[in-house]
């Protein structure tokens, strides 16, 4: 029997790369229109996945990709929070 688990893959909205879900961070828009970072990957709402790389965050901000994907305005604070998250994770590894 094949006992290997299937690794869930998701596409980064900035780079277009397919990656394992754990290598990406989910940004979600709730029904109320609030945009937040979903570290659990389970919050309800419209979601978009972004690679945990500074270049992907900068590209998403420059091209306004998250606003288009989530169909709402994304505040600069979300991008700052993403950059902080990436910095923390890179220090830990």
Automatic annotation (TrEMBL):
<dbReference type="Pfam" id="PF04296">
    <property type="entry name" value="YlxR"/>
</dbReference>
<dbReference type="InterPro" id="IPR035931">
    <property type="entry name" value="YlxR-like_sf"/>
</dbReference>
<protein>
    <submittedName>
        <fullName>COG2740 predicted nucleic-acid-binding protein implicated in transcription termination</fullName>
    </submittedName>
</protein>
<feature type="domain" description="YlxR">
    <location>
        <begin position="10"/>
        <end position="83"/>
    </location>
</feature>
<dbReference type="InterPro" id="IPR007393">
    <property type="entry name" value="YlxR_dom"/>
</dbReference>
<dbReference type="InterPro" id="IPR037465">
    <property type="entry name" value="YlxR"/>
</dbReference>
